[in-house]
Design a protein that fits this description.
By secondary structure, this protein is of the alpha+beta class. It folds into three domains: about 150 residues, no CATH class; about 100 residues, Response regulator (Rossmann fold, 3-Layer(aba) Sandwich); about 80 residues, Immunoglobulin-like, CATH 2.60.40. It is built from eight helices and 18 strands. The strands form five sheets. The chain has a four-stranded antiparallel sheet with strand order 4-5-6-7. A hairpin with a 2-residue loop joins strand 12 and strand 13. Helix 4 crosses helix 7. It is globular. The protein starts with 7 loop residues before the first strand and ends in a 7-residue tail after the last strand.
């Protein structure tokens, strides 16, 4: 067992929702990720779509039970003293697979060991199912317990993570109604209004993203921006909304993202002259999709890339049919979304 100490902490994290063009969807989930030895733990699992058991959308009693379990105040939920550290973001079952580990006290310390992939009630074999490079970890007990106990206070519990909400401004055009329905389906609150300039500041501060419909005139947009500024809101305005619902969902996800830059994997996306440039901070799976509108206002989506990439900058030549006309490219990792309009004038 390891005798070297590593630090323990918690950081806000997101599993980005999605509404692909094929009609499926994936939930938007906000949770606390474990910070081990100075960095978030989940990004070290490059191709894992998962959330920790400390999810902000859990019932408060369930959330508290998860915290108390990791504090070793209750018995382990799985055989062999094992706890789920990362599980399926869509359900609570082990059938989809989960990263579990033994969490135990060793004198005043807390140790995580034998982290492994588990798909059923039977404890996994660490030799066969273990995750290379993950654990074991020894934490100072005082630091470990202090960080987790903060989640049981009013200032640090699940309610401290504001529920994601978007305000859609404009007449109830079909695109806004469809966007609101799509956002609600993946777990993001959405309301449509004709005028937000006169709303109470407390109401405005509930929203993390604002989307203007295409018919809202500039003077009304300016009035809404002034109202949000006076309310000291940190809402992000979607300044170039796309005409395709999956793209709009991605733009709202990007606007809602408050992840500190030092904890981000997806750093940059630019599209110039038929070429996309993607920059990532650590190894992860990246998906690129284009959305465009043709001369007859028909929408088209094209899958461009879906694979694990090494850290650094990566260039992708884009097929002309995928970016012709008014077009956007969306880059996704499990925890982040970036969108960019296609600049047909610029050279790569």
């Amino acid at each position: 067992m390891t005798s070297e100490y590593v630090t323990f902490g918690l950081t806000p994290a997101v599993r980005a929702g999605d509404v692909p063009a094929d009609g499926t969807y994936q939930k938007h989930r906000e949770f606390w990720d474990f910070v081990v030895d100075g960095g978030p733990l989940l990004p070290r699992l490059a191709d894992l779509d998962a959330v920790s058991p400390l999810a902000a959308d859990l019932d408060p009693a369930v959330f508290a039970a998860q915290v108390r379990g990791l504090l070793l105040e209750t018995d382990a939920p799985l055989d062999g003293g094992r706890f789920v550290l990362y599980g399926c973001p869509e359900c609570e079952g082990l059938e989809c697979g989960a990263i579990t580990g033994v969490v135990e006290a060793d004198g005043p310390d807390v140790v995580w060991r034998d982290l492994a992939w588990q798909t059923g009630p039977t404890a996994p074999d660490p030799e066969r199912d273990g995750v290379p490079g993950l654990g074991p970890y020894r934490f100072h007990g005082d630091q470990y317990r202090t960080e987790l106990k903060r989640l049981l206070t009013e200032d640090g519990g699940p309610d401290a993570r504001r529920a994601p909400r978007a305000l859609l401004i404009g007449r109830r055009a079909a695109v806004l109604a469809k966007l609101a329905a799509a956002l609600r389906r993946i777990g993001i609150g959405a309301e449509i209004t004709l005028d937000a300039a006169g709303a109470h500041p407390d109401e405005l501060r509930r929203y993390g993203a604002v989307v203007f419909g295409p018919t809202v005139p500039q003077n009304e947009r300016d009035a809404v921006r002034d109202a949000f500024a006076e309310a000291r809101s940190d809402a992000v305005f979607v300044t170039d909304p796309g005409p395709v619902v999956p793209l709009l969902v991605a733009q709202v996800e990007q606007a809602l993202d408050r992840t500190p830059r030092q904890h981000r994997r997806l750093l940059c996306l630019t599209v110039r002259g038929g070429e996309a440039l993607v920059e990532i901070a650590s190894e992860c799976r990246v998906r690129l999709v284009s959305h465009r509108v043709d001369r007859l206002t028909r929408t088209h989506s094209h899958d461009l890339f879906d694979d694990v990439l090494a850290p650094g900058r990566h260039r992708f030549a884009l097929p002309a049919r995928a970016v012709r006309g008014t077009a956007f490219v969306v880059a996704r990792t499990g925890d982040a979304v970036l969108t960019a309009p296609v600049d047909h004038q610029a050279r790569p």
